[in-house]
Amino acid sequence: MEHLNRNDNTHRLEVLPQQLKFLRSNAREILYSGAFGAGKTRAICLRVAMRASVQGAREGLCRKTVVALKRSTLKTLLEPDGLLPPILPQGSYEYKKIDGEILIHGGGSIMLFGLEDAGRIASMNLSGVAVDECVELKEQDWDMLRGRIRLQLPSLSNQLYGACNPSTPQHFLAKRFGLASGHECAPNCEAITTTSRDNWFLPEDYVKDLETMTGVARKRYVEGLWVGSDGLVYDMWLEERFVVDEVPESFDRMIVGMDMGYNNPAVLLLIGIKDERVYVIDEWYERQRLEQEVVATAIRWKEEHPQIDCFVVDPSSAGLRASMRNVGLDAIPANNAVFTGIQSVAGRLCNDPSGKPKLVVHRKCSNLLREFGSYEWMSNQDGSNKDQPKKEHDHALDALRYSIVHIDGLRSTPSIRSIDGIGDNAKMNPLFNDDLWTEW
């Protein structure tokens, strides 16, 4: 344990060795990557408080959502954490809740925000930005924050610094900070990694419980490693094989796969088919978007790509399909046979007779790439795998699955439901549409 004193010598801080290394880093971009109990949030709050104590500083403090920021990070900054005192001592600051700003007496300020509203952040001019749980961010979020750290001060360098638990090697942070195999740390970036054992102040029973973890959970959350899973659904996925920086300018046909969500993201994937090969050209992956925003995005894509044949939509989203049809878009319900669909996608993760991949993904589809490295099978306690995947890290992959099944023509022969006495004559009823057909 080492000690740091703030420049006014009024607040003595005790930090772990890896936290100290994080606090003293001079890199422009810094990642504090740690396992459970490694003091990541406290390290982030320490750094933002020390930097904001410099007169004229304007530091950002953010998470993916402002709700998560207030429920976790802000509490560490302003409230006691067990026996630990708050990072900012009472009386040393003024918290303007309406403005989302903390004014440090005799120093600068801390701007609090989530990344839901890109427009608000685009106007910020900051000396630095702290990001808690930065593994939640998309690469474009990180790049946008890089563009916000431009407020020049003589005694404070511009820095973007984040903390998180490890994720998959496919995550953009693993690549940017050299934590994924085959990748070197980008210029002027530094990663500080730590394990649960590095924090010798953790309760003994807590550490013993962590030590019972096995497999990928142990590697990530105890040892602090950025590793994939032995139970990945698409374990044949190789980024160097299926990811490209350019796609053809024209296609034989195009479709859009769609998975609907609100708290979970809504996803649109633009798919092109050329010479029997499938190209994922672009993605739209957004949380907390209303149905009309999703429809507006579909309209825009159709205008930009008139050759789109149809939109293959999440079969549970009948209302969305109706809204799309009302504006002239051909929206059809997807086949939601999960295991069959997974087999269809997996069947594309190979080469065709000419030696070219049957599935190609453009590198800008970062969320789809991330999910390929995170989508796992459910497991029984004895370690055997079930034939169902976990319902997580699957939103873009669901949209892809809908698309591949549609392209491969694997839709089951539909049967007719009996609705309000409608039986064999259901097709003749003018109120009947494809939403009444069995979709799996």
Report on the structure:
The chain is of the alpha/beta class and 440 residues long. The chain contains 14 helices and 19 strands. An eight-stranded mixed β-sheet has the order 5-6-7-4-8-9-3-10. Strand 12 and strand 13 form a beta hairpin. The chain starts with a strand and ends in a 32-residue tail after the last helix. Mean pLDDT is 85; it is low at 1-9, 381-385 and 410-440.
* Through-space gap between termini: 59 Å
Average pLDDT level: 85
Quote the beta fraction. Answer: 15-25%
Number of strands: 19
Largest sheet: 8 strands, mixed
Using the CA coordinates, give the radius of gyration: 25 Å
Kindly report the oligomeric state of this protein: single chain
Q: Which structural class do the helices and strands define?
A: alpha/beta
Low-confidence stretches: 1-9, 381-385, 410-440
The shape, in one word, is globular
What is the count of DSSP helices, taking H or I runs of 4+ residues?
14
Give the neighbour order of strands across the main sheet: 5-6-7-4-8-9-3-10
In percent, how helical is the residue content?
A: 25-40%
Question: What are the key terms here?
Answer:
alpha/beta; eight-stranded mixed β-sheet; 19 strands; disordered N terminus
Layout: helices, strands, pairs:
Elements: E1 2-5, E2 12-15, H1 17-24, E3 29-34, H2 40-52, E4 58-63, H3 66-78, E5 93-96, E6 101-104, E7 109-114, H4 118-122, E8 128-132, H5 139-146, E9 159-164, H6 172-176, E10 189-194, H7 204-210, H8 215-221, H9 239-242, E11 243-244, E12 253-259, E13 266-274, E14 277-286, H10 291-304, E15 308-313, H11 318-326, E16 331-333, H12 338-346, E17 359-362, H13 366-372, E18 377-379, E19 385-389, H14 395-408
Parallel strand pairs: 3-9, 3-10, 4-7, 4-8, 8-9, 11-17, 12-15, 14-17, 15-16
Antiparallel strand pairs: 1-2, 5-6, 6-7, 12-13, 13-14, 18-19
